[in-house]
Amino acid sequence: MADTGNTEPEIEALLVDRYLESILLARERGFGLAGHDPSLDPELRAASDWLTAGLVRVHPSFRFEERLARRLADAAAAMRLPVAAGGETSSPPPVIARAAAGELDPARDMNDEADLFGHRARPLLIGGALTSAAVSLAGAAFVAWRLSRPVHPMVRAIRAAHERAGHQGGLA
Amino acid sequence: MARPVFRKVKAEEAGPNDRRHERRLVHLDRDRPLVEAALRDPAAFDALYRKYLAQVYSYAYYELGSHHDAEDAAERTFLLALGALDRFEERALPHDGDGASTFRVWLFRIARNVVANIRRGQRRHPVAPIEAAAGVADRTDVEDDVSARHEASAAWAAVARLPVERRRALVLRFVEEMSTAEIAGVLGRSEGAVRVLIHRGLRAVARDLGGRRW
């Protein structure tokens, strides 16, 4: 046998893959489980057969299926309406609109920690901008108020006394 | 299981930098007519929805362990797919392997992301795979068969104990009956990596079952 550079686990993984393919093919053709493959570890073969029989497909309720079908039909109609007369009054759900506008790619590669809809990043960004703007506005308002407010006569007298004392001290 | 459909590609269909100047065979998505119909008229998306609802729902159910969450995931997946359908690309390159460019792979990539999103939201709530397994068993065609129900519960419990990527690979392989190339497309991994995931997952399940059956 030619040396393909595969390690033992890789070869076993290939054998498992081939066996699973044969199981799926046999099922597709209505033959039940595939024939025995003597080159495959019996424990792996038995586990494969066991999962093939035990992991069944789950079906949603008919009520859910029809409800979602109606929702998709409504969304599809809303997607068509903007090009038709009077379509301005209807719009597809926000998530569809965002996907259609290219704002999000729902099939992109992302790890389990990433947020498909960008919910985590967006509020922080908006919140930061709002906070920053609010601080800036408050600061500007405070400075304007300080500059424009009338000065009390007592404050003017105290400032004048401080200035005089400073001049005298500087001359001495 | 998805099987590739082939067609011949004429030289003029290849791009200017394409070195393939001769007629060749490429994999074609079996869903192409349905996708094209849905692109012409979004109402025709219903056919794709009916075809894949049970698969997407099933995948979400095995991932999330609750019918309510699975419904939520299925709904978001199909709404997103409808909205982004015009961005679906059938990348039929030979090295993608059989079926790697199919609409089903694209749809399951969306489902995978949606499930991850829901999982993030429910991280503080414990998942109960045993209850989920009981629910799975209740929906088999042999509802009265206690033995089959027990086997289904035990199978799901064994798979639920696996690390997340191995579990996903096994669910896509055994429940959704995807080829290795398709699973690689869904998980964003190479076919070799998927084979190793499945092999290690099966090995762990075999060990788990060792005391029970052999």
Describe this structure as you would to a colleague.
The complex is a heterodimer of chains A (about 170) and B (about 210). Helices cover about 60% and strands about 0% of the residues of chain A. Chain A is an all-alpha fold and about 170 residues long. Chain A folds into three domains: about 10-55; about 60-100, no CATH class; about 120-170, no CATH class. In chain A, α1 (about 10-30) runs parallel beside α2 (about 40-55). Residues about 120-130 of chain A have low confidence and may be disordered. Chain B has two domains: about 25-125, Rna Polymerase Sigma Factor, Chain: A (Orthogonal Bundle), CATH 1.10.1740.10; about 160-214, Orthogonal Bundle (Arc Repressor Mutant, subunit A). In chain B, about 65% of the residues lie in helices and about 5% in strands. Chain B is built from nine helices and two strands; from the N terminus they run ββααααααααα. Chain B has a two-stranded antiparallel sheet with strand order 1-2. In chain B, α2 packs antiparallel against α3 (about 65-85), α2 (about 45-65) packs across α4 and α7 packs across α9 (about 190-214). The model of chain B is unreliable at about 1-15, about 20-25 and about 135-145 (pLDDT under 50). Classes of the chains: A mainly alpha (about 170), B mainly alpha (about 210). Chains A and B meet through α1, α2, α3 and α4 of A and α2, α3, α4, α5 and α6 of B.
Question: β content of chain B, as a range?
Answer: under 5%
Structural class of chain A: mainly alpha
Largest interface: A-B, 65 and 77 residues
Whole-angstrom Rg of chain B: 19 Å
Q: Regarding quaternary structure, how should these chains be classified?
A: heterodimer
How many individual domains of chain A? 3
Q: What number is the mean pLDDT of chain B?
A: 77
How many helices of chain B? The count is 9
Spell the H/E element sequence of chain A.
Answer: HHHHHH
Just give the CATH class of the largest domain in chain B.
Mainly Alpha
Largest beta-sheet details of chain B: 2 strands, antiparallel
Write out the strand line-up for the largest beta sheet of chain B, numbering strands in chain order: 1-2
Amino- and carboxy-terminal Cα gap of chain B: 30 Å
State the major sheet of chain A.
Answer: none
Number of strands of chain B: 2
